[in-house]
Design goal:
This protein has a domain of 51 residues. It is mostly helical. It is rod-shaped. The protein has three helices and no strands. Helix 1 runs antiparallel to helix 2. The protein starts with a helix and ends with a helix. The longest helix is centred in the N-terminal third of the chain and has 42 residues.
């Protein structure tokens, strides 16, 4: 397999992993909120039905996007010499130009 093909499959894997992580984190937050609502109702007779579900769904979405941005940042830093690489990669040629 050529290096170009390997790079294609590596990038495809990273994109798929980002999407899967976003969906999984969202569903975990949704499930946790639903479970808390259903646990509190019969035991404490608290009627919190949609609130914990919505709050933990929001937490799950935030966690998914945070994870997605961290993965994107890591993928961007791994290739500092290529086009689209890390913008923080400064070389000596920038020192000569005022």
């Amino acid at each position: 397999m050529e290096e170009r093909d390997k790079e294609f499959w590596r990038n495809l894997y990273q994109l798929a992993a980002m999407g899967i992580n976003l969906v999984v984190a969202t569903f975990i937050g949704l499930f946790m909120g639903w479970a808390i609502d259903n646990w509190l109702m019969p035991r404490l007779n608290w009627h919190t039905s949609p609130w914990f579900t919505m709050i933990f769904l929001l937490f799950g979405i935030i966690a998914g996007f945070k994870n997605m941005f961290q993965m994107a940042k890591k993928a961007n830093i791994e290739k500092p010499g290529e086009e689209g690489g890390s913008k923080g990669d400064f070389s000596d040629k920038d020192k000569d130009n005022p």
